[in-house]
């Protein structure tokens, strides 16, 4: 018997919207809304004037750079069904509204709801008939590993016959057809709108990355989760959160403030371990599943004392990938001497795969069905992506101290003894955590034989200044070179590479731009490498 797919949201009329607001949002006075409610049906909701169409609801909010009301003129031209603003109109804006309403049959209704921002996710969830309750939504947070784990989870579910959508850094949509977006986790209206579209498209599962910004800014308010998962927490985004404690606290909110059936936690991570202890003590109806890629002895040390539901033994890194034996609740299964082969590079990817496996196991998928799909897992674009051999060229999105350390450590173990050198090209993003810069410089120096410092989205900062701040963490200047132009830096290191060398190009991964002073200029590390490989090939034949 097949179960009927849930239906997507019913459009709301203006009367229903005003009733919702007067019941749930402080400061919204129904009596201030004009007495006549024409039968205008509002179709979609958006915070972005560019996404508005006829009869949509435009929510105008204060942002960092502008206010939604700055785009009022273009919004009016699209004949919106309703505009809601978090502030009263200026005199000029009121003149615009009056002029529009005098010259058009379809009047634009504009309501001021000062507190709309604080309840926006709940409002959007109501507007779209709570789409997360019609889907199985998995939320993944952590400093590194969100995208990789989301893809591995999505690939496993898809290969087991499910329809899967992703929301994350690489885009939103069905797993093989992602549409790029500006944020890892979109704003709260966009999240609910996407979830509703996924219901319409007949998706079963949605795997979404939840950034720390999203948790602080309420972008996932109104989402009911099937499972929430934590990869690992290390230093990042101090520019936004202020301190490492505040950053870690933001991440923990996914596990303390949202409704979920189950939590999947990395017990080898300090925050994962703390949350695991807290949740097991509370003993509520939620299922808690712990995993770890660490040795059992370490996991059972004084600090940890939690027996992971899933861990691994016999881990080996080979040129083809990673081998391991899974261990469940400290017991191997009868046929559990088996070795699982992953065609993935880097030990941290084993941790990501354990997290993805845990998400499926906690949702009742059997080990027997999961294991047949593990060898099919593919690496994620720009994450430990091998672009060339002789020299080996690896593209990776490592842009935090921990990620850079993990990647260089993992790659080092692939260097053939005594031959070849490990060279790394990287920079640090402008307008982002300045404190990580010297830390990344020191890590690169200690793990690579040659370090080439360059630009990585300088944004509003001077690239040379960022490079200087990274170099402050390096005390041996002879193994370090600086080159502001990223293309030149990559080409130079490749030109001088020997066949046995491994070149790691870190920080930008899949990105196809270089962001300078608010403009995203087309740029791709992968393209620079492909061009270099083509030139090398044609020289060989020419
Ligand atoms: C600091 C921050 O989070 N900024 C987000 C914010 O931008 P903003 O406040 O500057 O908005 P604004 O440009 O001033 O515009 C104000 C309002 O006018 C609207 N607008 C704007 C232009 C227009 O033509 N029409 C229009 O209606 C905007 O939709 C907005 O509602 O609202 C935008 C629309 O929702 C977001 O895209 C933008 O994220 C920017 C791109 C960003 O870089 N954010 C980073 C810090 C971030 O959130 N990163 C995390 C990932 C972290 C991780 O990897 O772990 C993420 O989840 O992406
Ligand atoms: N489990 C992990 N532990 C440590 N480092 C990791 C882990 N997984 C991935 N990395 C490193 O972090 C980089 C980013 O990985 P990924 O895109 O999966 O993380 P993310 O959390 O989505 O990052 P972002 O939030 O910045 O998009 C990888 O290119 C790799 O260098
Ligand atoms: N989601 C991260 C990605 C950083 C990627 C790196 N290339 C940079 O620009 O710093 C951020 O926006 O901080």
TrEMBL record:
Keyword list, A-Z: ATP-binding, Cell cycle, Cell division, Cell shape, Cell wall biogenesis/degradation, Cytoplasm, Ligase, Magnesium, Nucleotide-binding, Peptidoglycan synthesis
Sites bearing N6-carboxylysine, chain numbering: 251
Pfam family, one: Mur_ligase_M
Mur ligase C-terminal domain boundaries: 382-509
Molecular functions (GO terms): UDP-N-acetylmuramoylalanyl-D-glutamate-2,6-diaminopimelate ligase activity
Residues reported to bind UDP-N-acetyl-alpha-D-muramoyl-L-alanyl-D-glutamate: 47, 49, 183-185, 211, 219
Binding site for meso-2,6-diaminopimelate: 432, 456-459, 507, 511
InterPro entries named in the record: Folylpolyglutamate_synth_CS, Mur-like_cat_sf, Mur_ligase_C, Mur_ligase_C_dom_sf, Mur_ligase_cen, MurE/MurF_N, UDP-N-AcMur-Glu-dNH2Pim_ligase
SUPFAM superfamilies named in the record: MurD-like peptide ligases, catalytic domain (SSF53623), MurD-like peptide ligases, peptide-binding domain (SSF53244), MurE/MurF N-terminal domain (SSF63418)
Record's subcellular location: Cytoplasm
Modification after translation (UniProt): Carboxylation is probably crucial for Mg(2+) binding and, consequently, for the gamma-phosphate positioning of ATP.
Domain Mur ligase central: start-end pairs: 140-358
Cofactor: Mg(2+)
Functional summary from the UniProt entry: Catalyzes the addition of meso-diaminopimelic acid to the nucleotide precursor UDP-N-acetylmuramoyl-L-alanyl-D-glutamate (UMAG) in the biosynthesis of bacterial cell-wall peptidoglycan.
Protein family membership: Belongs to the MurCDEF family. MurE subfamily.
NCBIfam families with a match to the protein in the record: murE, PRK00139.1-4
Protein name (Swiss-Prot/TrEMBL): UDP-N-acetylmuramoyl-L-alanyl-D-glutamate--2,6-diaminopimelate ligase
């Amino acid at each position: 018997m097949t179960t009927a797919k849930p239906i997507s949201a019913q459009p709301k009329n203006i009367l229903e919207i005003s009733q919702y607001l007067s019941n749930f949002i402080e400061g919204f006075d129904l009596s201030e809304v004009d007495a006549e409610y024409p039968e205008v049906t509002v179709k979609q909701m958006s915070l972005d004037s560019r996404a508005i169409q006829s009869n949509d609801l435009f929510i105008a909010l204060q942002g960092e750079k502008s206010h939604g009301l700055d785009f009022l003129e273009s919004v009016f031209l699209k004949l919106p069904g309703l505009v809601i603003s978090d502030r009263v109109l200026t005199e000029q804006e009121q003149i615009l509204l009056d002029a529009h309403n005098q010259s058009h049959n379809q009047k634009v209704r504009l309501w001021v709801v000062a507190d709309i921002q604080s309840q926006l996710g709940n409002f959007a969830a109501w507007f779209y008939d709570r789409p997360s309750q019609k889907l199985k939504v998995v939320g993944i947070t952590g400093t590194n590993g969100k995208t990789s784990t989301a893809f591995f989870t999505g690939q496993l579910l898809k290969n087991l016959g499910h329809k899967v959508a992703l929301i994350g850094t690489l885009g939103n949509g069905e797993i093989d057809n992602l549409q790029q977006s500006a944020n890892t986790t979109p704003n709260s209206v966009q999240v609910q709108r996407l979830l509703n579209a996924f219901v319409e498209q007949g998706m079963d599962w949605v795997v979404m990355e939840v950034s720390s910004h999203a948790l602080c800014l309420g972008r996932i308010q109104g989402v009911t989760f099937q499972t929430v998962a934590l990869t690992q927490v290390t230093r990042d985004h101090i520019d936004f959160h202020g301190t490492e404690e505040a950053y870690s606290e933001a991440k923990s909110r996914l596990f303390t403030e949202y409704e979920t059936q189950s939590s999947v936690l990395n017990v080898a991570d300090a925050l994962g371990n703390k949350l695991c202890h807290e949740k097991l003590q509370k003993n509520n109806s939620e299922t808690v599943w712990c995993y770890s890629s660490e040795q059992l002895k370490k996991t059972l040390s004084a600090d940890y004392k939690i027996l992971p539901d899933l861990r691994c033994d016999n881990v080996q890194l080979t040129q083809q990938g990673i081998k391991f034996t899974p261990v469940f609740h400290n017991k191997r299964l009868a046929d559990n001497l088996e070795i699982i082969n992953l065609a993935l590079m880097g030990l941290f990817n084993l941790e990501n795969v354990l997290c993805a496996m845990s998400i499926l196991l906690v949702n009742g998928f059997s080990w027997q069905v999961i294991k047949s799909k593990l060898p099919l897992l593919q690496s994620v674009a720009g994450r430990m992506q091998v672009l060339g051999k002789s020299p080996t060229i690896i593209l990776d999105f490592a842009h935090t101290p921990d990620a850079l350390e993990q990647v260089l450590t993992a790659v080092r173990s692939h260097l053939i003894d005594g031959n070849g050198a490990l060279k790394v090209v990287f920079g640090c993003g402008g307008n982002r955590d300045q404190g990580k810069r010297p830390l990344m410089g020191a890590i690169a120096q200690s793990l690579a034989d040659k370090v080439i410092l360059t630009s990585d989205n300088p944004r509003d900062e001077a690239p040379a200044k960022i490079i200087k701040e990274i170099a402050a963490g390096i005390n041996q200047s002879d193994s370090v070179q600086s080159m502001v132009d990223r293309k030149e830096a990559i080409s130079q290191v490749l030109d001088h590479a020997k066949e046995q060398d491994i070149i790691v190009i870190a920080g930008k991964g899949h990105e196809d731009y270089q962001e300078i002073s608010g403009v995203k200029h087309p740029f791709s590390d992968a393209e620079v490498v492909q061009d270099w490989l083509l030139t090398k090939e044609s020289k060989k034949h020419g």
